[in-house]
């Protein structure tokens, strides 16, 4: 059953269908409906990316050392919180990984929150988006492992500290690492989908108070799931940082 097109996706399909088909063909993919290649989660991801660019462009123009406004102070609190979490969970070198972790966290947070705006939906309620973010995390922390420990030492840690148990530890560690992106994907996707559906049900049944309460719950879940995703990413990165840096 084809998904219900939100107005933005309909606009993309009506105006930019050839571009959508070209993009899909460039990555060797084909749309189920060639006449309507754009899907809701793709158009919403594009919108979220544009919003983030505009927000930080405005923020950069308003930066002030002497008289920071509320807009700047809000993002300073967010930055200080993420910086503190990276230092606590990764170690003194934690802030070195903040550009990746912070960018990913902000994208997920904005993607979660945009679902409360009428006429839009959270792209993270589609499994493809959390899966893409999870695979980025998986590739990132493994790349750091090979870079910081070297190929031999990083692969050796899969065998565990006791050589006699290596035959047991290697498959356990491999399964554990492969389960990480699956866990990240399911947790974010399931919670955002459930929150979105519950909010929409109550919006269609009642007015004012009850919808406002569930929209507040949606905001809380959006922040919580973004935080959990970022926190788990930090923990995975911490596994690749040499112990003496902690």
Explain what the structure shows.
The chain is an all-alpha fold. It has 2 domains: 1-38, no CATH class; 47-245. 72% of the residues lie in helices and 0% in strands. Helix 2 packs across helix 4, helix 5 runs antiparallel to helix 7 and helix 7 (166-205) runs antiparallel to helix 8. 24% of the residues are buried.
Set down the secondary structure blueprint.
Layout: H1 7-26, H2 40-61, H3 70-89, H4 98-113, H5 128-149, H6 151-156, H7 166-205, H8 209-238
Helix pairs in contact: 2-4, 4-8, 5-7, 7-8
Name the features:
246 residues; mainly alpha
**Multimerization status:** single chain
Structural class: mainly alpha
Question: How would you describe the shape?
Answer: globular
Q: Percent of residues in helical segments?
A: over 70%
Number of helices: 8
Helix/strand order: HHHHHHHH
Would you identify the regions where 5 or more consecutive residues have pLDDT less than 50?
none
Q: Say how many strands there are.
A: 0
| Integer-rounded radius of gyration | 21 Å
For the record, give the distance between the C-alpha atoms at the N and C termini, rounded to a whole number.
51 Å
The amount of beta strand, in percent, is under 5%
State the domain count.
2
Q: What composes the largest sheet? A: none
Estimate the mean pLDDT confidence.
Answer: 89
